[in-house]
Amino acid sequence: MIQWVLEKGDCMRFVVVDRQDANSKRVSQQIKEKCIAHNWILDERKPDILFSVGGDGTLLRAIHSYVDRLDSMSFVGIHTGTLGFLTDYTQEELDTFLLDVFKQEPEIEEFPMLEITLPQDKQTYYAFNDARIASLDRTISLDVYIDGELFERTTGSGICISTQYGSTAINRALSGAVVDPGLQVLQLTEIMPVTHKHHHSLGNPYIMKEDRKILVEGKDLHLAYLSYDHLNIELEKIHQIQIGTSTKKVRFARYRTYSYLKRLKNLY
Question: Does 95 qualify as catalytic in the annotation?
Answer without folding.
Answer: no
